[in-house]
Amino acid sequence: MNKNFIKQAQQLQAKLQKAQVELEESTIEGTSGGGAVTVKMSGKQIVESVIISEEAAEDLELLQDMLVAAFNDASNKVQQLTNQKIGGLTGGMKLPGLF
Question: Residue ranges per domain, the chain?
């Protein structure tokens, strides 16, 4: 194998590992209801906290809808961040074992 190819592969691996650590250390917020519900999620899509305003807690059915929307918002933002950090390094290829 070409030594240059191996060196490039090692550099790519190091960049991917760095991006993965940055993602794991990230906290992303998803909101709904104009901020009535906020979900904080790690870059690994693990929920860290849920904040519900007093007003949102008064209507259970609306609260349930806002929770779903906030979780989906946070999840979508994590996916966008993942694509931003890792997608550029892999040329858009999906690599197994990455987020």
Answer: 29-84
| Backbone torsion region of residue 15, taken as left when φ is above 0, otherwise alpha when ψ lies between -120 and 50, otherwise beta | alpha
For the question of whether the overall pTM of this predicted structure is more than 0.90, the answer is no
Question: What DSSP letter does each residue of 50-68 carry, written as one string?
Answer: EEE-TTGGG-HHHHHHHHH
Strand order of the β-sheet with 47-52 is 27-32, 37-42, 47-52
**pLDDT digits over 35-89, tens only?**
999 999 999 899 999 999 999 989 999 999 999 999 999 999 999 998 888 877 7
Contact 51, 38 (CB under 8 A): yes
Please name the CATH architecture into which domain 29-84 falls: 2-Layer Sandwich (3.30)
The C-alpha angle with vertex 60 and arms to 56 and 64, in degrees rounded to 5, equals: 85
